[in-house]
Amino acid sequence: MDVFELLKRIRLFWSRIPEQVQRLSLLAVFFIVLFIPVRNLLVPKDFGKYGHYRPSALEEAAAQEITYAGHEACYECHDDVVDTKYHGYHKTVACETCHGPAAAHTEDPDVELPAPRERGYCPLCHEYLASRPTGFPQIVSASHNPLKPCIACHNPHDPVPPHTPAECEACHAAIARTKAVSHHVYVPCVRCHETPEEHKVSPRQHRPSKPATREFCAACHAEGATTELETRKVDLATHGERYTCWQCHYPHLPGSR
Ligand code: HEC
Ligand code: HEC
Ligand code: HEC
Ligand code: HEC
Ligand code: HEC
Ligand code: HEC
Ligand code: HEC
Ligand code: HEC
What we know:
Elements: H1 3-16, H2 19-42, H3 56-63, H4 72-86, H5 95-99, H6 103-107, H7 123-126, H8 173-180, H9 189-192, H10 214-221
The chain binds heme C (HEC) (8 copies).
One heme C binds at residues 89-90, 92-93, 97-98, 121-122, 124-126, 136-137, 150-151, 154, 156, 159, 161.
């Protein structure tokens, strides 16, 4: 078959292709031809020397200003903090994660470093999220002691959960002081308020019970009630019968009416 014949066949083939495909093919050929000079123009000369990598990028990266010092650098001057953190739950959290880039500070301590003292910071890692790994310590910050900064209770360098206050008095000082001088001094708070342990950690989420009926007080004060404490008795049927007892008697200071 001669060249003429070949051209003839190609032409025949071309004429059978739909018109829109013809246009697309021309466009494709145009871009392929364009690509060859553009590639030579745009790809850096040293590309490919070390595989799929540009060697001069190494120098450029090395020439960038150093802003992070690395946690080893802190030991020289803050060995106490480094030691504390090393033994605590935050041992895997780098100093500069919380304090920011510190290279300038390590060279000249007069360059001050910020410390994230505000409450909004710690929840970045500790806010409850269903996607965090199981067992990762999480809180719901809206209900976890919302009025104080986190560092009021947790040491950021050794964040052990603090000692939970054992006494109601630690948080309900006014009520405890009032009750202490009342007729109810020997009635323990938990006799009237069943208090879940969690209340002392997340008070608004886990609420203690409160007396709900006259019969509750009657357990000690109704005629014929037998209690461990000596009490004055009232006739439940006639004494303020239409009201709950604490509409007339403040339960934490029952002498006042
Ligand atoms: C050459 C000594 C030196 C080095 C190294 C050094 N610091 Fe300091 N740093 C100081 C001095 C001095 C102060 C100011 C006195 C003080 O508060 O203890 C200070 C204060 C701080 C403060 C106090 C901020 C505040 O609000 O109270 C932080 C945070 C801090 N440094 C973090 C770091 C971290 C993180 C590193 C390591 C990347 C580091 N420092 C390395 C000397 C140093
Ligand atoms: C989880 C975040 C966090 C990490 C990690 C952390 N810090 Fe702190 N750092 C804080 C906070 C918050 C304060 C402020 C504490 C305060 O005011 O009671 C602080 C305070 C400081 C202070 C000044 C007061 C003090 O306690 O001496 C220094 C110095 C310091 N950090 C150094 C470091 C060094 C060094 C490291 C790494 C070994 C580090 N921090 C790791 C959050 C962090
Ligand atoms: C960069 C993420 C990060 C930040 C920011 C951070 N933490 Fe942590 N925290 C951790 C990791 C990781 C642990 C260890 C978890 C483990 O042991 O499984 C931890 C553990 C704790 C624990 C221990 C809980 C327990 O009993 O297991 C407390 C409390 C805590 N952090 C409080 C804080 C406070 C307060 C701040 C703010 C000053 C803070 N964290 C900021 C990552 C972070
Ligand atoms: C008024 C004190 C107080 C404040 C303020 C406080 N916490 Fe706590 N936190 C506690 C106590 C108490 C526990 C102990 C929980 C326990 O024993 O189960 C605790 C436990 C935790 C735990 C461990 C939870 C777990 O499941 O192991 C994390 C994490 C934590 N707090 C983070 C924070 C963060 C973040 C903030 C600030 C947004 C904060 N806390 C503010 C008192 C406080
Ligand atoms: C860590 C602090 C803390 C401790 C400890 C604590 N409470 Fe509370 N308690 C609170 C807070 C905060 C509230 C919520 C007050 C509010 O909602 O205005 C509350 C609310 C209550 C309420 C009212 C519940 C309601 O639904 O109105 C009762 C009752 C109560 N506490 C009893 C107790 C008793 C009893 C103890 C001791 C066994 C105790 N609390 C220990 C902080 C504490
Ligand atoms: C004799 C039973 C009794 C004892 C003991 C008692 N309470 Fe109460 N407390 C009540 C009753 C009743 C209410 C009111 C319920 C209502 O209003 O619905 C109440 C309400 C409260 C409230 C809600 C806020 C308020 O002032 O109304 C708190 C908080 C509380 N008690 C804390 C305590 C604490 C803390 C102690 C111990 C120091 C204590 N109570 C001891 C019966 C008692
Ligand atoms: C309508 C208001 C009212 C109600 C409701 C009420 N009280 Fe009283 N209570 C009083 C008054 C007023 C006194 C003092 C006058 C008296 O001694 O009769 C009193 C006195 C008492 C005394 C002392 C009795 C004595 O011998 O000094 C006790 C105990 C008492 N109340 C218990 C209760 C109990 C328990 C309830 C709920 C079952 C209750 N109260 C409901 C108004 C009320
Ligand atoms: C565990 C038993 C007990 C319970 C429950 C109890 N009290 Fe009392 N109450 C006492 C004792 C003990 C006294 C002191 C002796 C006395 O005055 O009767 C007292 C005294 C009182 C007084 C007499 C105050 C005075 O001025 O003489 C009143 C009123 C009173 N309680 C009301 C209540 C009310 C209202 C409730 C329910 C919220 C209640 N009590 C629940 C044990 C109890």
